[in-house]
Amino acid sequence: MTRHVWTCRGRLTSFSSSCTPRSDTTEQKRAFFKHVANGLHDRLGVRREDVFINIVIEADENWSFGKGQPWI
Question: Model-level pTM?
Answer without folding.
Answer: 0.60
